[in-house]
Design goal:
245 residues; 2 domains; Arc Repressor Mutant, subunit A; 12 strands; disordered C terminus; four-stranded antiparallel sheet; single chain; 9 helices
């Protein structure tokens, strides 16, 4: 994203620690973003309604309305990308935030280059810079997926997928760069009855990887251990560093 493009993007930063908001404001502004700041969830939601920011970065532990409650409130009315920051590194809390509607989760302390990379990734996904989805066709990164023709090409090569593999790839591609929890994927592919069958997902992910990865190690489908999966439509899209299993 160029500095000129970033200048048009407004980021709402939410944290009750003013030292954190000052640091985030300085770093984001130096990268060309316009920054709005709130020190509580209630203040943040008022700003969200008044200003319609392009992305929200929020802490979890805050007075009046916490970050999870803010995320759920925003999700009831909009799909604005939300990145959660928290000192709480438990897998349970990550899953709870992501299931509540957050698009990404970063544990404090974090590096600013990583946060900025995740901001860029979420803005690319939300604005469709890498290929805006249509009702039946999606071209993004190395992939072209057509739901009407039920065809998939990877780097120009046709790949045959089973119906479930196709559904999984379509779901991942539509949510490129976003962490999808196991629960969200299971419910989307198998319905409510599938939520308690994580082995279904492990097998399906393995089958899909064999057909689209064709390389050693994860290339497109990346594990978020104990949480879910993140889809990167091209290897160079993985500019946010993260540990892989």
């Amino acid at each position: 994203m160029t500095t000129a493009a970033a200048a048009a993007k407004r980021v709402l930063v939410v944290d009750d620690e003013r030292q954190i908001t000052r640091m985030l404001r300085t770093s984001l502004q130096s990268s060309g973003y316009a920054v709005l700041v709130a020190n509580s969830g209630l203040e943040a939601f008022d700003l969200f309604e008044a200003e319609s920011p392009d992305l929200i970065i929020t802490d979890l532990a805050m007075p009046e309305m916490n970050g999870l409650e803010l995320t759920e409130a925003v999700r009831r009315v909009a799909q604005t990308p939300i990145i959660v920051l928290s000192v709480r590194d438990s897998d349970l809390m990550k899953v709870k935030a992501l299931d509540g509607g957050a698009d990404d989760y970063l544990t404090k302390p974090f590096s600013m280059p990583e946060l900025l990379a995740r901001v860029r990734a979420q803005l690319r996904r939300s604005t469709g810079v890498e290929g805006a989805p249509t009702d039946t066709r999606l071209e993004i990164g190395d992939f072209a997926v057509d739901t009407e023709a039920h065809t998939v090409t990877v780097r120009g090569q046709a790949v045959h997928l089973t119906p479930k593999e196709f559904d999984l790839l379509w779901l991942l591609a539509q949510n490129s760069q976003r962490v999808l929890t196991h629960k969200v994927i299971l419910r989307a592919i198998w319905g409510p009855a599938g939520e308690g069958q994580p082995e279904y997902l492990r097998v399906l992910i393995a089958q899909l990887r064999k057909k689209i990865e064709r390389s050693e190690g994860p290339r497109y489908i990346h594990n978020e251990p104990w949480v879910g999966y993140r889809f990167r439509p091209s290897p160079e899209a993985g500019d946010a560093s993260e540990a892989l299993p």
